[in-house]
Amino acid sequence: MSAALPPKRPQARDVAALAGVSPATVDRVLNRRAHVRSATAERVVAAALELRYLPEADLFSALRPKPMRLTFILPSGTNRYLRMLGAYIARPHDQYRTYNVTCRCVFVESFNADALAEAILHHARRSDGLAFMALDHDAVRAAAARTILAGKPVLTLVSDLPHSDRAAYLGLDNLAAGRTAALLIGQMAKAETGQIGLIAGSRLYRAHRDRDLGFRALIAERFPSLSVVELREGHDDAAENYRAARELLLRHPDLVGIYNIGGAPSGIARAIREMSQHRRIVFVGHALSPDARLMLEEGTMDFVLNQSHEKTVSNAIRIFANLREGRPPETEIEPLVIELVTRENLPRS
In this structure, is residue 77 part of a structural domain? Predict the structure, then answer.
């Protein structure tokens, strides 16, 4: 008497016959190779389960869409807050799995609109969504428009891109941020007259222009005896900021405050330490970087207006997930607010 033959292993064509589809459709469903209607995919998985074609875990993963590939583009350079933001994006987080996304961060030459536009177009080709710190420039606007036209949603971070079809902006109200900085310096300076210097990264950033406008407006409204003497661009570079602050201190003996609209505050703090022995300079800036923390602790810096990088990334992921599911982009998104940090309320590092 011959031994019984082992049961025949089911084939893709058997799954296809039971599900009433072609073997090619079975391949597309189980390998997630192309879009298939959800009802068809469920029928294929049910047939594969009945025939025990694959382990259950593998079959149910076939119903889960491939992770949404998200790319964040940030400017390179010595801005430590942006490096911290990039490092945070690059680390794995539970919310990446929860929202079924993968995230990577790339850096592009700072303040170079053509380089940013090229990076947007390049990375859009292998991404399902892009988020970037925008330069307000026609080349960047055109690259964003092409990306959106190709079906890839775009978000702006920290600095917005006005007159574009980006899905959302994740940043502070920068007019309000500038006004807040002006109120702090005006009240802290306690001077009947005096001058205030401004140092920005670049007016190519809409965020920096709006902070400048908000600052000047509130000084004119609330502190007319104070005057804004000039705005210098330091390109978020510590060495350039040092030279800019040193020149402000040399040229304006009545200087009572400096507002660092952009990043890299360490150069400004160095100039203040060296040149303000006989006068009190109120120093306000943005972003709680390790440098800013040290300057708050030592008393060189008075206030930091911070934007949480954790909340920025979390909101970006939720917005992309909303768009994927067909919901309005800012559904259940917690608004970003100005976090006012002083030496007395420094969060634990």
Answer: yes
